[in-house]
Amino acid sequence: MNSKYTPLSRTLHWLGALSIFTILTLGFMMVFADSREVKHYSEAAHIGVGFFVFFIVAWRIVLRFYQGFPESTTTVKDKLVRYLHYALLLTMLVLIVTGPLYLFTENDPLSVFGWFSVSMDLSGLPWLHEPSEEIHKVLGTYVLPVLVTLHIAGGVWHFYKEKD
């Protein structure tokens, strides 16, 4: 593969970035809500937006692994960049699986803004509920924000370095 991303990859990147920013904001609103109403509202919005984020992130992950990553050199920096991309994609993949999983293991539907619900009865697997919830919360609260911050910092650094 050449060193440039395709227009589809760039579009998915920015759709994904907007989606991740939105879902993280709603997630933090849930965690830090002062009132029960704000918590429930942000939780419902987080779940509804998460439904669509699932498709954007899944499409992006499949496309990225199908197309591959742009070629890189063997420098330590390039290896770190590649591992950061892998970590971001893996984290997002785990988040889009664990979010619905911890709803479905309690036989709760995934309600999409009250328009429709997606349901899968996995209540026969109660041992998956707590690990799914904890993994989702830890990755969404701590790991993903750190990875996104590193990714943005790397993008800014790369942008200014290429101007030289």
From TrEMBL:
Signal peptide start-end: none
Transmembrane segments: 12-32, 44-63, 83-104, 140-160
Membrane-protein topology: Multi-pass membrane protein
Necessary cofactors: heme b
Main location: membrane
Localization in the cell: Cell membrane
Keywords (A to Z) from UniProt: Cell membrane, Electron transport, Heme, Iron, Membrane, Metal-binding, Transmembrane, Transmembrane helix, Transport
Entry keyword Iron: yes
InterPro entries: Cyt_b561_bac/Ni-Hgenase (IPR011577), Cytochrome_b561_oxidase (IPR052168), Di-haem_cyt_TM (IPR016174)
Positions of the Cytochrome b561 bacterial/Ni-hydrogenase domain: 5-164
Similarity remark: Belongs to the cytochrome b561 family.
Name assigned to this protein: Cytochrome B
